[in-house]
Amino acid sequence: MNIIISIIASCVFIVQVTSAMSSSQELVLAIKNKHPLNKNIQQLIRANQPNAHHLYEQFLQEKGMTPLSYATEKGKWNVVSFFLKQQIDPNLLSTKGNLPLCKACYYLQPSLVNELLSRGADINGVDAFGRTALHSIVSADEEIFCSPIQFALFKNVLRKGAGPNMQDCEGNTPLHELIHGYINFKTRVKKDQQAHLETSFNKMVKWLLYCGARYDLENTTKKTALSIGTEKVRTFLISKRSELLITMTKLLIRCGFNKDIAGLIIAHRYK
Length: 271
Hints:
The chain is mainly alpha-helical. The protein is built from 14 helices and no strands. The chain has helices at residues 2-32, 39-47, 51-61, 67-73, 77-85, 100-106, 110-118, 133-138, 148-159, 174-186, 191-210, 225-228, 231-254, 259-269.
């Protein structure tokens, strides 16, 4: 009788091991088949925790990425959501120093950004290069620079508390990056698109200024956002900041503050 029980137990163990191996092999095949983020992989990971998930991580480490950062970069909202539900830390850097939220912002993926934030991603978290979500948004590629989707995501992260004066490892603020991008792209876009580019750029600058962005912060090369701009950009920055200060002062006075108190509030808010 004991022999029979042992044989049955051995058979069950073999079936379990074979099943696990089969699941892992299927995962390897799915990955090698260049479809590493489809629903089949989610099912395999669910069915074979933690082995399949560990195998997936091992595969991605060769690319210098975590499963979450890879899914984010590929814009796979359902996979990001799946991994976050597995209690994966959304603020974990990949071995390349990338942050999932920064990646989602760089590729202008609003659904991914909202999902990451709802699961605990730090709106002001920094990657290995000191860059934040806001830095990533204003560094978008030429095809989407100053586009409606970029502006919408830009406003969204500012409303959620993104710091407009955070500096990366080179000392650049989001305003530095925005001006750099504008100057570079303006020389390459067609003439009939330059007016739209300028209008969109001006809107983003006004938003940054409204949220307290400073144009006098120096980067590591001692350059400020004001100094790197063209004369037209510099004039716009100064005039809009002056308009903003006047408008905010008037609003505070209307709300019952006297001029001195209003001045102190403005000085504190817009140093």
